Amino acid sequence: MKAIRRFTVRPVLPEPLRPLSDLARNLRWSWHAETRDLFQSVDPERWAASDGDPVRLLGSVSPARLAELAGDHRFLRRLAEVSGDLDDYMTGDRWYQTHPGELPAAIAYFSPEFGITAALPQYSGGLGILAGDHLKAASDLGVPLVGVGLLYRHGYFRQSLSRDGWQQEHYPVLDPNELPVALVEEPDGTPAQVSLALPGGRRLHARIWLAQVGRVPLLMLDSDVEDNNFGERGVTDRLYGGGSEHRLLQEMLLGIGGVRAVRTYCRLTGHPEPEVFHTNEGHAGFLGLERIAELCEGGLDFDSALEAVRAGTVFTTHTPVPAGIDRFDRELVAHHFGPEAELPGIDVERILRLGMETYPGGEPNLFNMAVMGLRLGQRANGVSLLHGHVSREMFSGLWPGFDPDEVPITSVTNGVHAPTWVAPEVFRLGARQIGAQRTEDALTVGGSDRWDAVGDIPDQDIWELRRNLREQLVDEVRVRLRASWRQRGAGTAELGWIDGVLDPDVLTIGFARRVPSYKRLTLMLRDRDRLMDLLLHPERPIQIVVAGKAHPADDGGKRLVQELVRFADDPRVRHRIVFLPDYGMAMAQKLYPGCDIWLNNPLRPLEACGTSGMKAALNGCLNLSVLDGWWDEWFQPDFGWAIPTADGAGTDPDHRDAIEADALYDLLEQRVAPRFYERGQHGLPDRWIEMVRQTLTLLGPKVLAGRMVREYVERLYAPAAHAHRAMDPGSARELAAWKAKVRAAWHGVTVDHVETSAAMATAELGSTLALRVRVGLGELGPDDVEVQVVSGRVDPEDRIADATTVPLKPAGGPDAEGRWFYEGPLSLDRTGPYGYTVRILPSHRLLASGVELGLVAVPSEETGEGAGVLMR
Q: Top enzyme class of this protein (predicted)?
């Protein structure tokens, strides 16, 4: 007989052990070693069987054992100490509370996935892990964040392999009552709910679950409630599952329902209302529409409400390719909004216009979520310096007339949450050197440019640490590999060879990530004979651990997995290269520390950031990577190797792969393996150890999520909060009316004449030219614009590079023809081919940037030629 419903009967904790429940329900245990050690001591065998999940542990421990612990004074002292530490952590002042300046009272952070811990499997890859690290770092810093996501009943998927190496997906059902989450309840004890209107008079209801991530509440919406019919119950079934309408409903629930959930949570708990809303990728973009609707209900018109919402919104894009952005059919979006559906008070055409691809090459019948995110957010960023550049190029069509460098998308390079990803052995080595508290502060708050104390750790200690971590990885790989082969149908008698897989003294390379084609999982297989020579080298062998999931609908990615698995199944090399299925957080926490080299070979510049190499680096692993994402920004020969790229526009993709694979093999043969195996006078690989030391000293402080979140606070959240406060209803109406006036009158804005004091074609460094400019402003006045001189070096096509902009001052007007005059100096501050031009931008005190409206007036070709704009 099969049960129709499954649930866990939990023992009642004796009164002295009640703090265990609070410790289990706060996910700080996932990055706090002392809390995990305490739970392990409750019942070591059950702790291992529960995969290190305190909620599952407490659901399985026997009443007799609990009674024993309730009388164990030593255990109770430890419990009181750990519980007290959590209280101090939750209530004490941290970095944010002591930071000068008026910071936001609260920030709402929306993401479609969150990777907090393997015990809460609500993530698929880098976006979710980044979001989880963002929440944890915010908690450590005391940043008043509220996370908002969805609770998926099947998570992403579990991966296994068929006998012939084909990826198979499994979707285990997740019971929220067995997860470290709790229902948000109304004062009468009923579950708090939000609901969305659907076409045809139906409604989509969702409960709100709370996961407490240290100091940060994470609200997760779950549509599997009895009030919904079968279709609506399945809206939150799988992460990134289903067709277009399914995805649209998920994203409406995340954005619109998420704002309503935040309002409900603040009402019930007294938590401050967010002043800033952070949209982590376009999936949650509809949150801006809900906030516009709120303001319209309060009496603002749409345009004024849009300005108020934009002021307090931050949008982060993670994709470097248009194909990675969610786009919906306009008719599908229109069907779900308006009088018969959601947000009936807003004109559907206004909603559709927010997502229109109005740039050359755009598709007018598609609704683009990233485009809407950029239009609803006054501040936007990419996730590495290179990705910021790629994003400005990709979205430059939204700001016609401006060079991509001026597109208002900045960058904040991602970081990783060190306490989550640093092996306990690495932490202990740091604690031995500078003390546990200083080590914890260095890994969480950060703030220093260098970790110089690493320089005092003896070479022998570093090398023993690295071997110990490698040995742990070898043990982990053998356990996982045996389980994988049993799933593939192998019998015990076939698997004796697994005891000899990998060697704790062999150079170990890790490669683990999602498996889209651009990450090139199989580039290492390009020349199989050469790879075999590397794996089986008699003096300098290498061994490789590979993991990764292909999207369930991506058969091309699955073929790449199968190709790699079949190579790793070859009896000649299977002791040197392994593929581990079901890559997730639990595996990653063993994999990063145990590898000597972290390999990354994407097609440049398609890796937005790529944080796995950061996690490896924090454990003393060296990076071997294409110069893409964060590695392009921070690579130095002191702590890794750069794989040369052949990314010229005319390079054939197959030829490019061949060139870059050859470069990878050359590096491994000639540089990496010799460096690892070369021994100095004390029998240690001195030069390798020095690279490990430099990685920890110089790279460690940079890759921290604490550094990343501090940058978000100072560069994006604080300015957004100031803009939000300045945008009261009167200011919002003023700005909306001014923008409408400027857009309507811009056709009358012209640069009519530019003259300069210098008539010669060359000028001396340090000299100054006096500029006088005659402009037409049409129906606008000098208060509506800024006239600028833009100058810098010029290329052979006379394009200005590395430009400097200086405003010119009004010098009179209007004349008889209604023209105005502007004047100012132009300092010649660099040598070589040099040029300048003049332009006019809209200007208003409430704009974040003069580029914001995408309007610019520049000289006509005749005006420019007459002014002698170029000097050589």
A: transferase
Nearest residue to 280 (alpha-carbon basis) of 386, 407, 373: 373
pTM of the full structure: 0.95
CB 708 within 8 A of CB 738: no
Phi-psi region of 548 (alpha: psi -120 to 50; beta: other; left: phi over 0): left
Cα–Cα distance measured from residue 568 to residue 704, given in angstroms and rounded to the nearest whole number: 34
Residues in contact with 396: Cβ distance below 8 Å, sequence separation at least 6, in sequence order: 359, 402, 403, 404, 407
d(CA 63, CA 188): 31
Distance CA(374)–CA(774), nearest Å, equals 34
Distance between CA atoms of 811 and 251, rounded to whole angstroms? 52
**How many residues are recorded in the chain?**
872
User: Can you point out the beta strands (E) in 303-441?
Assistant: 313-316, 327-329, 366-368, 379-382, 410-411
**Which ranges constitute the DSSP H helices of 228-383?**
230-233, 244-252, 258-269, 287-297, 302-311, 330-335, 348-354, 369-376
The count of other CB atoms within 10 Å of the CB of residue 182 is: 13
CB-based burial, 667-688: b 16+ in 10 Å, e otherwise: bbbeebbebbbeeeeeebbeeb
Report the C-alpha gap between 704 and 463 in whole angstroms.
24
Tokens describing residue 470: 């490698």
426-430, 445-449, 756-760: which is most confident: 426-430
Q: How far apart are CA 579 and CA 477, in angstroms?
A: 9
How many of the other CB atoms lie within 10 Å of CB of 554? 17
Rounded mean pLDDT, 62-86: 96
What residues does 313 pair with on adjacent strands? Answer: 277
Alpha carbon 523 to its chain's center: 25
- Calpha distance 192→681 (Å, rounded): 68
Out of 434-438, 672-676, 691-695, least confident range: 434-438
The contacts of residue 733 (CB under 8 Å, 6+ apart) are 300, 301, 304
E strand segments, 659-736: none
User: What pLDDT shows up at residue 8?
Assistant: 64
CA atoms within 13 A on the CB side of 238: 14
Alpha carbons 847 and 53: distance in angstroms, whole number: 49
Closest CA to 593 of 412, 431, 416, 414: 416
Among residues 473, 457, 511, 508, the alpha carbon closest in space to that of 696 is found at: 457
| Local structure of 841: helix, strand or coil | strand
The two tokens of residue 700 are: 């460690």
Count CB atoms within 10 A of the CB of residue 762: 8
Distance of CA 660 to the CA centre of its chain: 27
- How much of the chain, in percent, has pLDDT values that exceed 70? 97
Phi, psi of 491 (to 5 degrees): -90, 160
Q: What percent of the chain has pLDDT over 90?
A: 85
CA separation, residue 138 to residues 133, 748, 841 (Å)? 8, 48, 37
Confidence band, pLDDT 50/70/90 cuts, at residue 597: very high
What residue ranges in 460-575 does DSSP mark as E strands? 507-512, 542-547
For residue 91, the Cα-to-chain-centroid distance in whole angstroms is: 28
**Which tokens is 202 given?**
């139906």
Which conformational region is residue 435 in: left (phi greater than 0), alpha (psi within -120 to 50 degrees), or beta? left
Q: Which of 424, 420, 463, 442 is nearest to 691 (CA)?
A: 463
Half-sphere exposure of 487 (CA within 13 A, CB side): 20
Distance of alpha carbon 383 from alpha carbon 286, whole angstroms: 21
Three-state DSSP string of 576-640: CEEEECCCCHHHHHHHHHHCCEEEECCCCCCCCCCCHHHHHHCCCCEEEEECCHHHHHHCCHHHE
